[in-house]
Structure formats: structure tokens, C-alpha cells
Amino acid sequence: MATHNDFGKIAEDLAAEYLQKNGYKIVTRNFRFQKAEIDIIAEKENLIIIVEVKARSTDAFMLPQEAVTKTKIKSIVTAANHYLEEFDKNSEVRFDIISVLPDEKKKLIVEHITDAFEAFDAN
């Protein structure tokens, strides 16, 4: 299997492809603010969708989405707030997680968890 960084990039590419096929417009990828990063920012139906992509080579220890901790949520929310201010966006925001895991045949499976957390989950 690919190295950790390569696998992460492949997972983000799969997530972006999945979103586009499902009617989302990708606005930007890998948006950075200070030490925080948002993997994908998309738009659909007047919503701004902040997407955290989590990939694992196995779910033996935890599901990918379980790696989105309160600290990570706080970081994502901080970066999202900066993005909204910087680009003067007033739309409603939704926070999603896309999980990428291989199945038993090593085929990568994309799972989209909509409205995975709220900004106040960071507190």
C-alpha cells in the first residue's frame, strides 16, 4: 500500500471526486490558517461544507471518523471562521467527515458523514 502521505492524498482525491459526483462544487482544498488545515471546502444548496477527510489502512484500532477529536474540531472551526471572514461568506456552514477505508479486497470505500459535528462541539 502507499506511504502514509500518499495514502492521505489519494483519500482526499477520492473524497473530492465523490463530492463532485454528488453535486458539490469544490471551492478549495487544503485551506490553511495558522497550524489548522481544512481538507476540502465545498458548496452545495447555499451551504458551505467544511470537510475533514480521514483515511486509515485498517479499522482494527478505530474508525477513521473517531480520529476527529475535540482538539481537531476546534482547529477546523477556527480555520473555518477565518475562511468565512477572509472571503466575506455569510452562508450557513455544515461540517462533514469523509472516511476512506479499504475493504477486504483492498478496494477503497468512501463513507460520507454529513453534519458530523457542530461548531460548538469544539468547546
From TrEMBL:
Source taxon at top rank: Bacteria
Any Pfam family: UPF0102
InterPro entries assigned to the protein according to its UniProt record, in alphabetical order: Restrct_endonuc-II-like, tRNA_endonuc-like_dom_sf, UPF0102_YraN-like
GO MF terms held by the record: nucleic acid binding
HAMAP family named in the record: UPF0102 (MF_00048)
Family the entry assigns: Belongs to the UPF0102 family.
Record-given protein name: UPF0102 protein IX38_01805
Taxonomy of the source species: Bacteria, Pseudomonadati, Bacteroidota, Flavobacteriia, Flavobacteriales
